[in-house]
Design a protein that fits this description.
Length: 508
């Protein structure tokens, strides 16, 4: 039953049409939300309880789990300015994908078989039209009265059933109306997909593609809604997240007691994290306790800096930052790679032709090459030694070309081997340049964090100019994440730090 929808569908000119600017391009066939991290679950612990744990029902635990999921989603929307519902394809060969493909194929095969009957049967087609109508109406705003009336009039299911029973159902007309309405309601990024629907002549492939494009439009609308509520969510998210965090621990039998408020003393790993940071600062300056140079803000900032060097495999992550553990892991990896990048660029400047740093184009090319070859360094799947060996070879080739172009004396064999050796050992903890760059990066990030309240940008330490842009971008993301966490969990931190520092002050 081939047909081609009429291409002369008139466009809506009513003032109640939705704007094309209200959506972004994100597709997800299954409609799932992919969040950067899994929902948080506090680490297990065997610390003594202030009172016996109370028992909770399965329903309470389910409610708590749902609350944590909602908290994770709200948290992601707030801290990730570019958050969108992302596409997610089910793994090839997985049971879920196999079952989905079998069910979909059975449905479309049945639909095609009904269309081929004489006379055609429209039972499945009516089901699809009902779903299409519901989806189109879901895109409308309360003021879109005329569009809603048009959809209800053309996709009147009772009338469609009567026409189907009497053999008078006009599928091409309904398809043409649907495509025209989709063109009116979709975001500009979907115009091309909607336009392609008019080229499909067979009914079954057309229905399949219409539903696929409608699914994309649903996600566009969801992402537009997310971007719209983000400013409002920011205002409410701190109290919301703090409350959900409290609710979860009150219903977690292994950690929570019958107390009404979950105290800082109960957060085992937060306690250990902050205590360790306070001890570090006090140990650096034995006079700090009496001079009160160690304040809660400095301890907390130092604690957040420790998260950039955290041993995630062997050390439990603090409960209050567990939702951002993956982000801190990514930042730790970024710091590692930036430290190596800065080290290698400084080695090139110090070990080659004088004035090479002034040749911006060449140093930029070196920087791009090294960054590319450092991808994955710091992860278990990439060997740092092998990456540095490759970099040493590539850099020497580039330097040979550079020296030849500028009439400089080429490297001797001994000098080249020495230069390669410096690159291969660049990641060694005993490497003075590596230790210098690492120390200055840590100093800069801590200064950036400490200066966040003063809204001033700290001076970049020497030796980091080649990685300034990358370092400042990371610092902005790091400070934004830390400041939000401080706002949410400040009552817990203040309670604990007040006790620790007061105890230090009274010690002789």
């Amino acid at each position: 039953m081939p047909f081609e929808p009429d291409k002369s569908q008139p466009a809506e000119e009513s003032s109640d049409e939705p704007s094309h600017s209200n959506s972004s391009v994100v597709a997800d066939e299954s409609g799932r939300i992919r969040i950067r991290q899994s929902t948080p679950s506090p680490h297990r612990g065997n610390t003594p309880q202030a009172s016996p744990p109370r028992f909770v029902s399965v329903e309470e635990l389910m409610d708590a789990a749902k609350g944590v999921t909602n908290m994770a989603l709200a948290h992601e929307i707030v801290v990730n300015g570019g958050f969108q519902i992302k596409p997610m394809e089910l793994p090839q060969g997985s049971l879920e994908r196999t079952v989905r493909d079998i069910v979909h194929k059975a449905f479309w095969d049945c639909l095609e078989a009904q269309f081929r009957e004489n006379p055609p049967v429209y039972d499945h087609a009516i089901i699809l039209l009902a779903e299409i109508k519901e989806t189109l109406i879901s895109f409308l705003l309360p003021g879109h009265t005329r569009l809603r009336n048009q959809i209800n009039e053309v996709l009147d299911l009772e009338l469609i059933k009567q026409e189907a029973e009497n053999g008078a159902l006009d599928i091409p007309k309904l398809a043409n109306f649907t495509i025209g309405m989709m063109g009116t309601l979709c975001a500009p990024a979907r115009d091309e997909e909607v336009k392609k629907l008019r080229d499909i002549k067979e009914p079954v492939p057309l229905f399949r593609e219409i539903l696929a494009v409608l699914d994309l439009m649903k996600l566009d609308m969801a992402n537009f809604t997310i971007s719209s509520i983000r400013p409002h969510l920011m205002q409410q998210s701190v109290e919301y997240e703090r409350k959900k965090f409290q609710d979860f621990f009150e219903k977690k039998p292994s950690m929570a007691s019958s107390c009404v408020i979950y105290s800082a003393d109960s957060l085992e790993f937060v306690t250990s994290w902050l205590q360790e940071s306070a001890d570090d600062l006090l140990a650096k300056d034995s006079a700090a306790a009496s001079s009160s140079s160690v304040c809660p803000i400095s301890v907390l900032n130092h604690a957040y800096m420790k998260l950039l060097t955290w041993d995630h495999e062997r050390k439990a992550f603090p409960e209050t930052v567990v939702m951002d553990q993956i982000r801190f892991q990514e930042m730790k990896l970024e710091v590692t790679q930036l430290t190596l990048l800065g080290t290698l660029l400084l080695i090139i400047q110090n070990s080659t032709t004088p004035g090479i740093a002034s040749h911006t184009a060449f140093m930029d090319r070196m920087k791009s090459l090294i960054r590319l070859l450092l991808e994955g360094v710091g992860t278990p799947s990439v060997s740092t030694e092998e990456a540095l060996a490759t970099i040493s070879e590539k850099v020497c080739v580039e330097l040979s070309g550079y020296l030849g172009q500028h009439g400089s004396t080429p490297f001797s064999t001994e000098r080249e081997e020495s230069f390669k050796g410096q690159i291969r050992t660049a990641s060694s903890p005993s490497n003075q340049i590596y230790r210098l760059i690492d120390s200055r990066i840590q100093m800069f990030l801590l200064s950036y964090l400490s200066a966040a309240n003063q809204r001033s940008v700290p001076v970049l330490p020497g030796g980091l100019s080649q990685i300034q842009k990358e370092l400042e971008e990371m610092a902005v993301r790091f400070v934004r994440l830390v400041n939000y966490n401080k706002m949410v969990f400040s009552p817990y931190y203040d309670s604990f730090l007040g006790k620790v520092l007061n105890k230090q002050e009274v010690q002789p």
